[in-house]
Amino acid sequence: MDLREQMNLCDAGDVFVIPANIEKTFDQISRGVGHIFASGALPIVLGGDHSIGFATVRGIAQNTDKKIGIIHFDRHADIQEKDLDERMHTTPWFHATNLPNVQAKNLVQVGIGGWQVPRPAVKEARKRGTTILTMNDVTELGLEKTAEIALETAWDGTDAVYLSFDIDAVDCGFVPGTGWPEPGGFLPREILYLLGAVAKEGICGMEVVEVSPPYDCSEITALLATRAIVDVLGTLVAHGKLGSHKSIIRGWDA
Ligand SMILES: [Mn+2]
Fold first, then answer.
1. Domain contains 254
2. Could you identify which of 3, 50, 52, 216 might form a hypothetical disulfide with 89, taking C-beta atoms 3.0 to 4.6 angstroms apart as the criterion?
3. Residues in the chain, pLDDT under 50
């Protein structure tokens, strides 16, 4: 498949953020992503660290009256309320699942089990009843069953699903260009399979986060991030789901 024959691709450029002011940065990201989403385009967001997950989901959630589930690939749970008294890259899902149309029961977190999974996050995930599939769970269940559980959870009573891919879900041997490299994660072919398997049902947006070019070698991390995105886009086309998100946009009639 040639994606350029199937869709119009546009680089909307960077969101104008203020790195020293994370709350203002969140507002800017939500406005930017919300604007793209409300236009009917499918937002594909390249982070940035995982703090943006709250702002990206909020941007979409604010432009629909429908419910949104989240499929989250990561070695980290990222669901504690604060870190060093701030909202940051360990906290997006606490705040995203406080949004009125994003429920914690529709958040599925796949690949968790890095050495930096703080107790406050585990406590919060249990309290809110998110679904965590650790890397060991994935190994025992197999990829196909893992994708099935992820889809069932995220789509339970929802109208759309957001896909959040933290590159550190992949074993650090394949992704040196990230801030929290973790041994023992997915193989590239495993994560590409899973991303495709969950994208088959359609998505209302996608982000790839925690890619850090200054730490990268031979751009191999950036290459995997790119491959993840084009595989998801190809999957949407192959399954007739490209543009399926438009039906949930508030005020959209086509
Ligand atoms: Mn992570």
1. no
2. 50
3. none
29: domain CATH number is: 3.40.800.10
For residue 139, tell me if it sits in a domain.
yes
Q: What pTM did the predictor assign?
A: 0.97
Report the C-alpha dihedral over residues 18, 19, 20, 23, rounded to 10 degrees: 70
Q: 50 C-alpha to center of ligand 1: Å?
A: 7
Question: Measured in angstroms, how far is the CA atom of residue 247 from the centroid of ligand 1?
Answer: 31
Q: pLDDT tens, 21-67? A: 999 999 999 999 999 999 999 999 999 999 999 999 999 999 999 99
Protein residues near ligand 1, an ion, with CB under 5 A: 74, 76, 166, 168
Q: Quote the number of domains for the chain.
A: 1
Tell me whether residue 206 is in a domain: yes
C-alpha 90 – ligand 1 centre gap (Å): 8
Query: Ligand 1 centroid to 176 CA: how many Å?
Result: 13
Q: How far is the CA of 112 from the centre of ligand 1 (A)?
A: 9
Q: What spacing in Å lies between the alpha carbon of 107 and ligand 1's midpoint? A: 15
Mapping DSSP to helix (H, G, I), strand (E, B) and coil, where does residue 106 land?
strand
Beta strands in the chain (DSSP E): 44-46, 68-73, 102-112, 131-134, 160-166, 205-209
pLDDT of res. 196: 98
The CA 33 to ligand 1 mean position distance, Å, reads: 21
* 102: amino acid identity, one letter: V
Domain that holds residue 159: 3-8+16-248
Query: What is the CA(39)–ligand 1 centre distance, in A?
Result: 30
Query: How many whole angstroms separate alpha carbon 178 and alpha carbon 185?
Result: 13
The answer to whether residue 253 is domain-embedded is no
